[in-house]
Amino acid sequence: MLKVLTDRGAKVGDMIGAEILSLWDGNGAVKLIDRTGNAMLLEWLPGPSLREKAPCGQDQMAAKVISELSLKLRLSKADGFIELKDHFGGALPKAEISGFPEPYRDAFGRAQTMWQALLRTTEEMCLMHGDLNHDNILWSDRGWVVIDPKGVVADPCYEFSVVFRGPVGEEARAAKPERILELAELLARGANLDRTRILQFGFVHVAMSLAYHFTRGSISETDMAIFQAFDSLQLPVPG
């Protein structure tokens, strides 16, 4: 497959994905065959995607695949990749809470506090996919592999933050606190990580995404519902 970036894609750094694909060299990821300028030649993967293979609430199967891939893809910190503190342009810590919808201001204040505490208490920084959702995982002749990495450097617990928002088509279930708790438990066991910290990163990630869109005058009703579900868990502030 030939992937040619638009000017916007090149501007936001999508070619960083080629760098990390080169590092993975096909181990748990689509193979990068060649690259030049704003174009990448990639291995063709017909799929299906994980969303297609694990629909209708099959979180146990999906969590097993995602956690195993996260372990395979995780690399020691590398230069040239964006750190979590700069992800989404640092939208959450820069956000003026007074400009947010009034019913959600306290929750965003809690998310800002949580964000700073998570960054302060991070003990290990790893290079990871950064957008490990169900649609970015495809079946291949060597098993499940990922596509479209962002190449984020962060605490390993952050890798699962986008998982709580999917899969596409199950938004109502994604906003249920009991589903969030169960999914976090599955991911924590699969990747041998702390369940509470995975939840904390899930909370701040959806807050960060909302803050990014608020500053541009838009709102995601799905993200807002998930954000409220996370806030209802009354997660402790780390450290």
TrEMBL record:
InterPro entries: Kinase-like_dom_sf (IPR011009), NH2Glyco/OHUrea_AB-resist_kin (IPR006748). Signal peptide: none annotated. Coiled coil: none annotated. Keywords: Kinase, Transferase. One of its GO terms (biological process) is secondary metabolic process. GO terms for molecular function: kinase activity; phosphotransferase activity, alcohol group as acceptor. The keyword Phosphoprotein does not apply. It comes from the Bacteria. The keyword ATP-binding does not apply. This is Streptomycin 6-kinase.
